[in-house]
Each structure stands twice: as C-alpha cells, then as structure tokens.
Amino acid sequence: MDLGKDNDQLNPSKWTEVLHREIPELSGIADLHVDKLFFEDSSDINHLHWKKIITHIDETYQFFDGFVILHGTDTMAYTASALSFALTNLGKPVIFTGSQVPLNNLRSDARRNLVNAVELATYPLSEVAICFNDQLFRGNRATKMSIGDFDAFASPNFPALAEVGLDIEFTITPQSPHGEFETSSEFSDRLFLLKLFPNLDPALLQPFTTSGLKAIIIEAFGSGNFPIRGNCNLLPFIEKCRETGINVVITSQAPFDSIDLSLYESGQTALRLGAVSAGDMTVEAAITKTMHLLGKDVAGDQFKAQFEKNIAGERTN
Hints:
Number of domains: 2
CATH class of the largest domain: Alpha Beta
Structural class: alpha/beta
Radius of gyration: 21 Å
Order of helices and strands: HHEHEEHEEEEEEEEEHEHEHH
Largest sheet: 6 strands, mixed
Shape: elongated
CATH architecture of the largest domain: 3-Layer(aba) Sandwich
CATH superfamily of the largest domain: L-asparaginase, N-terminal domain
C-alpha cells in the first residue's frame, strides 16, 4: 500500500499513529500492532523479502489472531503465492492489501482496502489471501489484471473467497489446517519463464540447457500448444532440457481455464518427454511453487509429483 513517500521513514509506533489518525475506524475493529519490515517498490521485492515476512510471521505467530501485509500491487500476487506455499497448516488469516492510489490522495482506495483487510483478519480464516476492491481472493489464485482501475485483481479460475458489502459474505469454505503450523522460507532462483511468440528461434534457447537452470516454465499458447514443425520446432529444446535434468513446466498465456497437454500432438509429445502441466494455476503460482520446490531440493520424479499435487489450494487439476 502506498501511504505516501513522506511516511517511509516512520518508526512502527509512528506508523500506528498515522493509521489511527488517517483511518480512525480501525481502532474499532482490532487492536493493531504495526511492524516495519522494509519499504520497497514492489517491483524490487524478491525471495529475500519473502523470507523476512515468513520469518516474522513464524516468530510472532502465537501473539496475534491475524496478519495484514501492506504491499505494492505489482508483485503482490507473487508474494501472496509464495507465502501460501511457505506457511504450511496455517491456522490464521494472512491478508495482503494495497492501493492503486496513495492514502494521502483525495480519491485513494487505500482506506477502504485496509479497513476491509483488517476486519477480514479478525475472522477464523486459514488462508493467505488478497483483499482488494471489496473482494477477498485466495492469494495463489489471484493475478493483477489492471494498472489503473480500482478493481485491480482477479481470480480467473477460482471464485472469490468473500464479497464485502453491507456484510461480509463468504462464498467459498476456507481451507483448514491439518497439522502443526510450519514454515519453509527457502526459494530457488534457478528457473526461467519463457513466453512463446510466433517465429521464436529455438537456436536462441540452446544456452539455457547448459546454464545451470533447474526449471524452465514455458508460457505456451491456448491449452498448452507450441510449435512442432519446421525451424520453430521446440521439441528438440524440451528434449535437451529434460536430458540435462531441467524440469519443464508448461502453462498458458490465457489466464482463464486449464491447459490440457493430452489434447494435441505438441502437448502429448511434451508429456512423453517428461514435461509437467501447470493445470489451471496462475503464472505467479506456477513460478513461486517451482521456486519453493527447488528451494527444498525436490528434483526428478518427485518434482513432477509435487508440482502436480494441490499443495495450498493453488490448482484444481
């Protein structure tokens, strides 16, 4: 959430004062405690920042009923997805929110989003979620869809968890923990996202096969299609990746619905070569789940089995 650059250097106690002064209704919702972990433009946030958030939640988990994380919108879906995999058997709400317009602007959406997020964090909600524009989305199902609209996020293949109006209406039964709360904050950066386009020359991709990568996520066309004819044939590249131990994950450039590699020849061949389907996962979830599994040194057949498994509500199939 952009609270304005003038507030960047405030200590946590001053932040609490600012929030109560600017949004006094918060004091009627919950007893707030503010911790400042870092101030970064969200485009600069990476797995080192994720680790700070995860560690802080782990260390303070017993002291709070819920957590609200203020985060820039550009990479909010990535961070929310990453935390959904890192916080196992979460038994409390972890709600991300932010704003399209800074709090100190007249027409800011920050106030409404934060009030909603804090209230939702008082509910018995075992989810990492994103609260934005009167909707609550499962974090690993959400993606940013708009740069300029207040309705910035959507959940293409999964319903919103809740709608906020005169009352808060839950539309999906939240997840429940099935064991003791645990955290895993290691993420690997040994992966690459390859977005396909017509006439992509596979020769340009050959250095990837000897680069030390552990996974390549191919953002293919439609239901997982890619060129398999002529000079643009990608099958030799995929085969080479698998021969050198690089995991190949195939997702789609279309945000809605699920890919199905069994439908067409390209996908069928990719499956035989050992490629893995991302199903109906968002690209953000596919990337962070891959980083999470690689960070735990999951490899080979175990990687395929774990990636295709629904770990944190991130995929339907």
